What does this fold into?
Amino acid sequence: MTVKAVIFDMDGVIFDTERVYMNIWKDVYKRHGLEITEEFYVSLIGRDRNSIIGILHDKFGQELDTTMMFAECDEELKKAILRGEVPVKKGAIELFDYLKEKKIKMALATSSSKEKLEMQLMIQDLKEIFDVIVCADDVRTSKPNPEIFLVSAKKLGMNTDSCVVIEDSPAGIQAAYNAGIRSIHVEDLKKADDLIIDLSERQFKSLVEVKGYLKDLI
It folds into this structure.
């Protein structure tokens, strides 16, 4: 089936956010006498805030003030963005330009809140790139539930078999699979494991490689 629309995840796919945010989390939690490992942080990628809160309470106890911790981490991320420390991923702009040229619809489907989304899209004024934007505020359930991708496809006016999802997280790949939408995994903090390989159509190291692959599908 020819691809008529591409649905992008945001963090780790379009923006090199995850590594920056992981280091922020490590520093903030260390200030409070808690340890965040890379393995644990990677397990949170792709999930919405409510899901992450449950996981944090399971790990650190119900007494953890997650509101305060998120506020501190978000403030540090905002400072990093303003300092220009969160770049757009290699190949992203070129891929956007190519898809626009080919008149392929584009959606952004992120588990981030609208506030965080708006802040990051200012990095390179990317808001107008997308035909549709769906964030955590727009859905009831988070990845790996398929809702966010099904909503994105519906808003694009596309059947699921005409779309492809580009994701970096296991939760995102699972969500696309559960939605009946083929997916492409782009490596960020999480390398393609057996689950990702089983559920995604292809796996690549960068969006540069993704562009080359999509040329045969458009």
In short: The beta strands are 5-8, 105-109, 132-134, 163-167, 182-186, 202-204. The radius of gyration is 17 Å.
